[in-house]
Design goal:
mainly alpha; two-stranded antiparallel ribbon; 10 helices; 2 strands; 265 residues
Length: 265
Amino acid sequence: MAQTISPPPAQPPGQRGPVTGTAGKRAGRRKPFLLDIYSTAVGKKYVMAITGIIGIGFVVTHMIGNLKVYLGVIIEGDERAYDIDVYGEYLREILVPILPRTWFLWGLRIVLIVSLILHLHAAYGLTVINRKARPVKYQSARDYEIANFASRTMRWTGIIVLLFLFFHLADFTWGWFNPGFERGAVYRNMDASLSRVPVAILYIVANIALGIHLFHGVWSLFQSMGWNNPRFNKWRRGLATAVATIIVVGNCSFPIAVQAGIVSI
C-alpha cells in the first residue's frame, strides 16, 4: 500500500520561511556611528588631527602664560607679588562664583587628558594598520629621501615629549622633583628647578623634540582633515615652521634665562 506524504503547512500570504538554516538568526548589532568611523584609518587620522589641534592650542597658551615670568614683581592689591604667581591663581579662579574654585581648570585638564589618551591610542592604531598593510619594510633608502627628518622621528619625539610631560608635572605641579617646592609659587619653583644645569639641559632638549614633533604634526593635520592642496603647501610649511619655532624659542628661553640670572629670586 502506497504511503501518502502530507504537504508542508501553508505559509500565510506575503510571508516566506528562511531560505537557509542561518537566515533566521538575529543579525549582530552594529557599532555606534562614531566608533564605527574610529575603527577605520581615516577615523583615526581625524582623531589624531583634532586632538593635535587641542594639544597645539594648549602648548601655545601655556607658553604665553609662562612669559609672564619676565614681568617680575607687580603690585597686586596693595601687595607686591610675582606676576606669574598672580596668573597662576587667576587660572584657579576662572568662572568663580559661577563655578566653584578650580572647577573650570579641572575641566580643561580633563579635556587635555582625554585628548592625550585618544591621540596616543589613534597613533598606536594607525601603526598597527600600517604594519598589517605593509608587513615587510621597504628595503630601499628611497624612504629616507621621501620622508623628512621630522616625519621619520615622529614616534621617538612623541615618546620623548610624553616622558618629559610626566617629569614636568612631577616637577612643577606635584613637586616631587622640585627642591623646596611651594604650591602656587610659580616664579620661585621655576627658579629652583631650572637653576640646576642638568634639568635646564633636559628642558631644552625636550622642547627641541617638541618643536620637531609639532612641525610635522601641524604639517600633516591639514592632510588628515582633508585640507590638503598643492597650492597651499607653501603656507602649510610656513605655519608649521612658525608654530614650531615660536614654541622652541619661547620654552627654551626659560631655562636659559634662569641660568643667565635674568630670572632669579
